[in-house]
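Researcher: Please translate sequence to structure tokens.
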Amino acid sequence: MNDTPARAAHEAHEAQAARGAHEARTGRPTDTAAHPETRGIELIADSERSGRARSLFFIWAAPSVSILTLTIGATLILLGLELWQAVAVVLAASLLWILPGIVAASGPAAGTSGSVITRAMYGILGNRLFVAVVGWFIGAVFLSLTWLASSFMGADLLRRVGVDDPIWVPIGVTIVVSAVTVLVAIYGHGLIAKLYPAMAVALFLIFLLVAAFILPTVDWQYTAPAPLEGVALWSAVSIGFTILASTPLSFINSPDIARYLPRSTKPSHIAAATALGGAVPFVVFTVLGALLATSVGPAAFDAGLDVALLDLLPVWVGPLLVAGVIINTIALNAMTAYSSSMALQSIGFRLRRIPATVIVGLVGTALTIYLVLSSSLLEAANLMLQFLVIVSGPAMAIFVVDALLRRFAYDGLELFDDRPGGRYWYSHGWGVPGLAALLLGGLVTALSLATDVWAGPIAEATGYIDLSVPLGMLVAAAVYAGLLRTPLGKKGRP
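Model: Translation complete:
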């Protein structure tokens, strides 16, 4: 008789008892806004869960009100699109926010982080490879890009008041902002749940104030210098869609916050709150970025859109905008660092969550400093976000298919059963259907990608139309669903 479920249940009981002892000893629970969260990937007991799905709206809205969305929106005009075409691309890409919403609904059922839930797709050993490569790549990209945005804008604001060093000022801003970000991530879910609604409101007000000064300068009659048509138009539309799609597709960590909701919370409510929280500000401020691009002219892209934006605003609004950028940076990167710290644990490193968070922060800070010294925000954002979909698109497709086929029925105890013979041990620890789908989907994505430094043969054959997102995700989803019907996929299914 396999005693693994009993052993896992015993370990979960011990973890819960340890938390109870901690509360008795310190007089405080482990998940509050006022104290660091010591819990990592451990299972969350039903008695420790609270809240409603609608609270997820503001938690996801705060990271989405971003200078990065303005930058990406401006890119659509830089690609040669008309305003209405840019808006259409934004609306199309915003529909992808339903995917992290669907994935988030797995959190309450499993009671653990997304980096553990993916063991159901890739197997115990395969998931360690997946999280080490894919999870860390996604986390590193977003940590560095958002810290990069705050570094450039903070440095430019300081330059305007006489503090002007092209190297040490942005590095200093990066270090300060990353330190605050890591501190929020250390305090964890309790602080995030309490702080992010207020941050979302503050960010909305700041960016709406900025919008009030941008809108009068917009060229509402704007037409592209060389209007695109035919293959050239579809190429620009597809590249813009790929850049925009990279944001919602990257949030395969969405179960990490939703896991604190009661098990009885309806998946549809979780999906709707997560999707709307991400999509609404995403649409508003990406479109605002496209409008901004019509007023600043092509030269602004060479100087840096962040610089042009500060030039456009009254002197007293500039500091408010930079404060908003920093608040957003902290909101987005604290969630990223929070999830990445648990990813380290799920890989198998015997680290507590707080030291793991510090390691994540140091790696992200180092990458940001490298980007500060080597590129502009616009160049770094566009290129890295396009390459990001090679891993994020197929990974999201696989997670969504798995969650829907299981109807979100993940057993947290069995996810922690890492011995041979366990439900998710699969083929010697490897989930062949998930890994094969990820590799084939990623390969098709790469072959279909069209960037300044790489164009795959599929992209070249279509006239540089970038079909990387739809083709890569469709292949990954089809391969995964198909292999689940074979003997390789039968074990571990409900």
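Researcher: Any highlights?
Model: The chain has one domain: 55-490.
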